[in-house]
Write a structure and sequence with these properties.
Layout (H helix, E strand, L loop, with lengths): L1 H16 L1 H30 L10 E7 L11 H10 L3 E16 L2 E10 L3 H5 L5 E2 L15 E4 L1 H7 L10 E4 L2 E8 L15 E4 L22 E6 L5 H18 L1 H4 L3 E6 L10 H36 L1 H9 L4 H35 L18 H27 L3 H7 L5 H5 L2 H33 L9 E6 L8 H16 L4 E7 L9 E7 L11 E8 L3 H5 L3 E4 L13 E5 H7 L9 E3 L8 E7 L14 E5 L8 E7 L7 H11 L6 E5 H4 L7 H35 L1 H9 L4 H33 L12 H27 L3 H5 L3
Parallel strand pairs: 3-8, 5-7, 14-19, 16-18
Antiparallel strand pairs: 1-9, 1-10, 2-3, 2-6, 2-9, 4-7, 5-8, 6-7, 11-20, 11-21, 12-20, 13-14, 13-17, 15-18, 16-19, 17-18
Length: about 800
């Protein structure tokens, strides 16, 4: 311990003795470790941090799955009851249904993201209320359950001003009187990652909807997210085996709804936000962690180069130590102590940088939604452990090569030369040069990935959407949230559209259940009349929209065949639908689809008749091939939740205040949400958000890697040029032109860059090919990106080489001949 303290004191004095070197090294490490810590904090938040519940490691997510569907499905209430009754591996089993509700407190109404939870929800999670009580027991799931509500802690503080007397007070939920009986504990934001659940209601209350809740009666209406807590000692594979048996029983008992439907179980932390999406998250986080790790490796190479140069300068000092009796192990330990101290300081600064970056990431807002997004990338012990581990590994990586090299120094030669070092030896020092080449190669990879993401963003923004977003403004609303009946809602929307058409500058008005690339999308299993449904031909799951007659003109959706939905297509008329080209191609290839029929309810109808074919567009996701899609008449498939859309002649944002005024004249308490232009809506997660995030993130890391590489080139050439001062002086004394000296130094920089680019090109092609699924309209070997990065990197690297090269031309031969 005494020796260690002595080494630390000496290392601290050595670092303080050269503040410029210390500052550059700490800053370089801080950027590398900070970037890695920030990225890891997002991985921690999504995949590693346990929920603040009892026994989080035994909490499992359960979902249904079918071979014909890409992602796992939720389960129905009837299946949930059977699983709960038959399972023998879970100590508690519960489920919930997410919904948007209108919460009215006094005269103020607002939209809230709520969960209708089953009886064992709170007991199963082992939660204790911050105030009041939770609801539990069999009555929770009975239709028409007691109208009570538990508020989320944050929702209570923000919307009820942390009222300590809130328990027992009354609010309205969707126009129905409800009693607040408790407040959930602080820190618990629900089980659905990213979105914060703002209130909890008994599952039986969902039956208070005017048209009833289909989940009570239909086994194939799978809309519940289910969870179970494993019994002590029960393993995951045992739970899966038990669920397989239950799924087999349900398939035998209910073949019409459960044929081919299995059950899957996974740890809750690996099922966020929902079972089946974990692979997508692993790919995204793997990409970001890989890019951040590459930046850290470039930082390591930079520091290793600096330490190599520093060790060379200190050869005489180390030789004297060795002559006085210090063994090779002692010298290595001293130098490693210095590098580890440097890494510790850089790691501390990196944690501060990472925390600042994590706070910035936590403040990100997804465009296109007013949903309660919850992003908490704060540091905890996992992130601190990761950062400290990164600092320790970095200290070892950057210190081991200089320490070993210094320990191999020939004491007699160094002392005999009086501290001089052979210029030729330093020129041929490929250990140092290889670090620079690796930095250039790494920065080339980062810049290529960044370039491909930027190109993907450009291509995504030019993708044909199937509609025209310019000049359109959206207003989300649901009269059901303030207790309107279906008939009152119909009258409201009819009066509202009449008012909107009367506004100056409004060209078209319509309402629809969703907007393209938005967050609220419907999907249904489609049964085509006359086509078989069996194990080999399961019903297709297709996304659709409920629209009114003005939708196609408002959104300028091209109609290629047939007619659009009109006013006559009301609740009394035969059911109709407009399909897109892909749906026509898939179900009626080489046929005229007009007049064909299909159902989104069952294999026996009711049938919708195809009346028109619209152009393909982007509906759920911006990427991927064309998908089948259809539009039905909102009057025939009624929903109170709608998006009002106006096409206007001027700036759509300027219409927002007047439209809001008109809406609140008709319904003063009606909450509005997602009030924004259509172009702003496209900035959401289903639109351009992740392309912009990927482009900005990879570009930032690419520029950081480039900076580190250029510092490496500049540092090595400056050092080598300084070591060759005597040689340069002799050359100039013998008549060498300044241009030849400039070219000599520049050539060495060009060699570094050329070798680094060749290696980086091969590595970037391999990396881009592995990530090709994340790019839009650009190949892994995109020539424009590769050429642009090559030219840019060569130009900037040559600039970094030019500074020490130009300094070399200014060497005074007389001073150089007296060098050292």
């Amino acid at each position: 311990m005494e020796t260690l303290l002595q080494d630390l004191r000496f290392a601290a004095r050595a670092l303080l003795k050269n503040p410029a070197f210390t500052f550059i090294a700490i800053l370089t490490l801080a950027l590398g470790i900070g970037a890695n810590s920030a990225v890891f904090s997002t991985v921690n938040a999504f995949l590693l941090r346990p929920l603040p519940v009892q026994n989080p490691d035994r909490l499992m997510a359960i979902a249904a799955h079918q071979a014909s569907f890409q992602f796992a499905d939720q389960i129905s209430y009837l299946d949930y009851k059977d699983i709960r009754r038959q399972n023998d591996t879970f100590s508690s089993f519960f489920a919930y249904d997410l919904a948007m509700a209108g919460v009215t407190n006094g005269q103020q109404s607002q939209q809230a993201f709520v969960a209708y939870v089953t009886s064992d929800f709170f007991p199963g999670l082992g939660l204790k209320p911050a105030l009041g009580n939770f609801f539990a027991g069999d009555d929770v799931e009975k239709p028409g359950a007691d109208p009570v509500m538990v508020l989320a802690y944050k929702y209570w503080t923000e919307h009820f001003s942390s009222d300590p007397d809130i328990v027992g007070k009354h609010v309205k939920v969707d126009g129905h009187p409800v009693t607040v009986i408790g407040v959930a504990p602080k820190g618990f934001v629900g089980l659905f990652t990213i979105l914060e659940t703002q209130g909890y209601l008994p599952f039986g209350m969902s039956s208070m909807e005017e048209d009833g809740n289909l989940s009570w009666t239909k086994r194939d209406d799978r809309n519940l997210l289910a969870f179970g807590v494993l019994k002590p000692g029960v393993k995951l594979n045992q739970a899966q085996a038990s669920l397989n048996v239950i799924a087999g029983r349900l398939e035998q008992e209910y073949p019409s709804t459960n044929k081919g439907v299995g059950l899957t179980v996974a740890p809750e932390r690996l099922s966020r936000p929902h079972v089946g999406f974990d692979k997508l998250l692993f790919v995204i986080f793997g990409l970001f962690l890989g890019l951040a790790a590459l930046v850290l490796l470039l930082a390591c190479a930079n520091i290793a180069n600096l330490l190599l140069a520093r060790a060379t300068i200190r050869q005489r000092e180390l030789a004297i130590r060795a002559a006085l009796g210090a063994g090779r192990a002692r010298l290595i330990r001293q130098l490693l102590t210095e590098s580890l101290l440097l890494a510790a300081l850089g790691g501390t600064a990196g944690i501060l940088v990472g925390e600042a970056a994590s706070l910035a990431l936590s403040s990100l807002r997804f465009g296109g939604t007013t949903l309660p997004i919850h992003l908490d990338f704060s540091f905890d012990w996992r992130v601190f452990t990761y950062a400290c581990g990164a600092a320790l590994v970095t200290g070892l990586i950057v210190g081991i090569a200089p320490a070993l090299r210094a320990a191999r120094t020939n004491v007699a030669d160094v002392l005999h030369e009086g501290g001089r070092s052979s210029s030729a030896t330093h020129v041929r020092n490929w250990t140092r040069n290889s670090f620079v080449i690796a930095q250039i190669a790494g920065s080339f990879v980062l810049l290529v990935i960044a370039g491909l993401f930027v190109r993907s963003l450009e291509n995504a923004q030019r993708v044909y959407l199937g509609f025209d977003p310019s000049g359109v403004v959206n207003f989300g609303m649901d009269p059901h949230l303030i207790g309107y009946t279906d008939q009152q809602s119909r009258d409201f929307y009819r009066n509202l559209e009449d008012r909107m058409r009367a506004l100056p500058g409004v060209e078209a008005v319509s309402t629809a259940a969703s907007v393209p690339l938005g967050y609220e999308n419907n999907d249904a299993r489609v049964y085509v009349e006359g086509q078989p449904i069996d194990d080999k031909h399961p019903p297709a799951n297709i996304v659709y929209n409920q629209v009114d007659p003005g939708y196609f003109s408002t959104m300028r959706v091209p109609l290629l065949q047939g007619r659009a939905i009109v006013e006559a297509d009301d609740e009394k008329a035969p059911l109709v639908a407009v399909i897109n080209q892909e749906m026509a191609k898939r179900f009626w290839p080489n046929q005229d689809p007009i007049g064909k029929r299909f159902s989104n309810k069952s294999a026996t109808g009711p049938w919708m008749q195809v009346i028109g074919v619209a152009a393909n567009g982007k509906y759920d996701f911006l990427t991927g091939p064309a998908e089948p899609y259809f539009y039905d008449a909102v009057a025939q498939d009624f929903t109170t939740f709608r998006m009002l859309q106006l096409r206007v002649s001027g700036d759509p944002e300027t219409y927002i205040p007047e439209v809001e005024h008109q809406i609140h004249e008709l319904a003063p308490e009606l909450p509005l949400f997602e009030v924004q232009t259509m172009k702003q809506s496209l900035g959401g997660a289903n639109g351009f958000f992740f392309f912009q995030l990927g482009a900005n993130f990879s570009l930032a890391l690419g520029l950081l890697g480039l900076t580190l590489a250029l510092v490496g080139v500049y540092g090595v050439l400056s050092y080598v040029t300084a070591q060759r001062t005597q040689e340069i002086g002799i050359r100039m004394a013998l008549g060498a032109e300044r241009s030849s000296i400039l070219g000599m130094v520049l050539r060495q920089g060009v060699v570094f860059v050329a070798i680094g680019i060749v290696i980086g090109l091969a590595a970037s092609l391999a990396a881009a090919k592995a990530l090709s699924g994340m790019f839009v309209g650009v190949s892994a070997a995109d020539p424009l990106t590769l050429a642009s990065v090559t030219v840019f990197l060569v130009a900037v690297a040559l600039f970094a080489s030019y500074v020490p090269a130009r300094r070399a031309t200014k060497v005074d031969p007389m001073i150089a001949l007296r060098y050292e």
